[in-house]
Amino acid sequence: MHNPYLPYPVRLAELRVETEDKNLRTFKFEFLNPGDEEKFAYMPGQFAELSVPGQGEIPIGIASSPTEKGHVLFTVNRVGQVSSYMHNMKEGDIMGIRGPLGHPYPLDKLEGKNLIIIAGGFAVTTLRSTIVWLLQPENRPKYGKITFVYGARNPGLLLYEDQWREWQKRDDIDVYVTIDREAPGWDGKVGFVPAVTKEVCPPPENTAAIICGPPIMIKFTQPVLEEAGFEPENIIMSLENRMKCGLGICGRCNVGPEYVCKDGPVFTLAQLNKLPREY
Amino acid sequence: MAEYIVKESALKDFFKSLTEGRKLLAPVEVDGKLQMAEADPENISINYTNTHMSPKSAFFPQTERLMAFHNDAEKSDPFVYKPLGLDNVDQTVLFGIRPCDARGLVVDNLVFQNNRFTDPYWKTKYESSIKIGLACHNPCPQCFCTSVGGSPFGEEGLDVLAVVKDGGLALKSVTAEGEEFLKGLKGTESGDTSATMDELKKAAEAKMPAAIDQTQVEAREIMDIYNQPHWQETADRCLNCGVCTFVCPTCHCFDIQDETSAKGGVRMRNWDTCMSWLYSMHGTGHNPRPTKTERVRQRFMHKLKYIPMKQNGNCGCIGCGRCVTMCPVNIDIREVARQMNQ
Questions:
Q1: pTM of the model
Q2: Which residue among A62, B87, B274, B333 is least enclosed by CB atoms within 10 Å?
């Protein structure tokens, strides 16, 4: 019988400091056992429990795309016991990952649509996965126009800079990266995510929005999309809640009758409008 | 279906034969309280209202070891986890489960074996066990199984249903596993028990309180119940002590923690309670259920609205009345259910 509590052992192949404040690091893991990578078959939007023996587990969105073979990526903010421990790990160290968990973004149902992908702060992780996947030659033709809005407080807090600078050079995705206030040396947009969204938002016809960000960003971006004419069914969000099992059993991540881990973390605004705001 | 009688004089032989090849859990006194626990066939009670705690701990222990790890980086498998407790699991037979508690196990089973994942720690214990229920003649003042869709003679979740008759037992099998199991037992003689059971069932059901109307709770949208004004009043009394969640047969929440020693450690799971502020608190300090009001509402909404939505209308409360008995400030789920339905 498959034991979903048992993590796959992984080796930390590469550790990268993502932000100027050093609070975010990206962990590139390789599976220790042959065959585990195939068992960990995932899609953009899913997450995993990062498991450190003796410290515990944390649920973190998968930042790599399944099209990037040989490794999985996670970007971890330093907040508690497990993440602090992980920030002190060295390349070559061994730990566990358990998953994939949750449902991915409904990319199959979004085929034929234009997409606006909106990210704030370090919630960009699973959207990095999504964009890498969408830009694959075998996937890109299935979708219409793709717009990406990404904001952070200052340039030092933007993740994956090499990646989005590459995307900016492409003509099959419109990339708008913005910071809250003017900063020396910054050559991109300045302004909050909702304002930039309002400016660059494509017409709502045959378009879906995927949003991931801090509650304050979502609070002010949601009305922008609704005013632009987006139906709640076409506004897709990913939730976070405290979790333990990740399997819909231990209880704590529920939002109404839905477990963020098992039934989410991806929900449409239409679904969330019927549920308590317990997230 | 197989039917048997166990005469009073044959009870000890019957109980003794339950222990052959299986670990017997039955109502016995432990530290002055009647509990569903590993039982000496000599000391099993058949005259009781219900066990102090529910039988869920037979399959979902209050504390359970999930896996072990060592921290010797020199070994070839540093930090690789080894599952615990899944091999050579004791085959158990539970005698004396009350029908309400058996329905509770059915609710739990659909959580531990849900539409996406199977919990192997639950499944290996639950599915290999034989569950013998003991019907209720004399419901306690706090119980209300018939109000939430059950019966003091309910068979759901059981392999065998027994009833006390003339100081002995009348037994009938409910499942094929139960029928097979009864064949091998001592102290039994074949006998027609259906008529007896039907008669006793009617008498017992007549003693039960009227059903709690939940039609409005079922019909209303989540947010309409969520925003009702009565939650604040219930929360004002609640101490968030969590006793209701620990005694509840359908409360299945747990926490996972690592216990370490110099050489390594074990990953454990322990019962947890949604009454605790820490239960839902994010790493950032943000808490989606920051006050008692949200936490109290969560527990009742879960039992009476969310579980029915997820389990084909079946109520998450099975009417055992333990939370009513144990609550230090007399919060009564029957009263809350009525308020939710108003």
A1: 0.94
A2: B87
Expressed as residue numbers, the domain containing B195 is 3-206
Cβ-Cβ contacts under 8 Å, A254 against chain B:
298, 302, 306
Of A101, A123, A146, the last residue of a domain is A101
Residue with tokens 């869920």, as numbered in its chain: B56
Kind of pairing, strands B92-97 and B23-30? Answer: parallel
Q: What is the pLDDT of residues B50-106, one digit of tens each?
A: 999 999 999 999 999 999 998 776 776 666 789 999 998 989 999 999 999 999 999
Are B329 and B244 a contacting pair, CB within 8 Å? no
In which domain, by residue range, is A24 found? 8-101
Q: Is residue A158 part of a domain?
A: yes
Q: Do A241 and B282 touch (CB under 8 A)?
A: yes
Structure tokens at B228: 């009702």
Comparing CB atoms, the residue among A4, A240, A253 nearest residue B117 is A4
> What is the Cα–Cα distance from A276 to A258, expressed in whole angstroms?
10
Q: Is A234 helix (H, G, I), strand (E, B) or coil?
A: helix
Report the alpha-carbon distance of residue A66 to residue A42 in Å, rounded.
6
B220 at interface of A, judged by CB pairs closer than 8 A: no
Structure ipTM over 0.90, yes or no: yes
Type of residue at A172: D
Looking at the fold, whether A14 and A77 belong to one and the same domain comes out as: yes
Q: Do B118 and A2 touch (CB under 8 A)?
A: yes
Share of chain A above pLDDT 70, in %: 100
